[in-house]
Amino acid sequence: MKPLYILACAGALLTPLGLAAATHAASDTAPENASPIFGVTIPDGYRKWELIAPALEADPLNELRAVVGNQTAMDAYRQGILPFPDGTILVKLAWKQKQSPEFGPATVPGAATTVQVMVKDSKKYPETGGWGFGRFVNGKPVDQAQHETCWACHQALVKDHDYVFTRYAP
After folding, report:
1. Burial class (CB in 10 A: 0-12, 13-18, 19+), 120
2. Cα 79 to Cα 53: distance, rounded to the nearest angstrom
């Protein structure tokens, strides 16, 4: 197995984003870029958020991933708060793995694959553990069938961690 080298640059502290920045009411007024079922959108400024943890997904996806969080998420991770408070927003970025052209043993990000968003709002999403989900390809939400799979995995595999897979990498 090749060693994995990841260089990540994450913003330091930033102004907390309100929950409204990542969610919209699932109604006729929901923007075109909102996820089906949950009405979640990609939050503005998320690329400046702090890194929670990197991840490597082996076959079949073969992806490099990075999960970032808003200030509410970062505070909860650092203080060990579970369940996560309402207002927590987690964003997972994913890229295909490719070999570095400069350094053969290194794996670097290739083409972007998805941006996935989890928003904690226990009043809005009581049936899914308080979480709303969004999955986006090229900035556009994927179809409803793919969103229906989010909750099933989170519920089955990480119920004891408030339905969140990612652990903080200090």
Report:
1. buried
2. 16
Walk along the chain (170 residues) and give the pLDDT tens digit of each residue: 333 333 333 332 223 333 444 544 344 456 789 999 999 999 999 999 999 999 999 888 899 999 999 999 999 999 999 999 999 999 999 999 999 999 999 999 999 999 999 999 999 999 999 999 999 999 999 987 776 788 999 999 999 999 999 999 98
C-beta atoms surrounding 8 within 10 Å: 10
- The answer to whether 40 touches 157, Cβ cutoff 8 Å, is no
Contact 50, 29 (CB under 8 A): no
Domain map of the chain by residue range?
33-161
CATH superfamily for 33-161 is: Cytochrome P460 (3.50.70.20)
Contact 107, 5 (CB under 8 A): yes
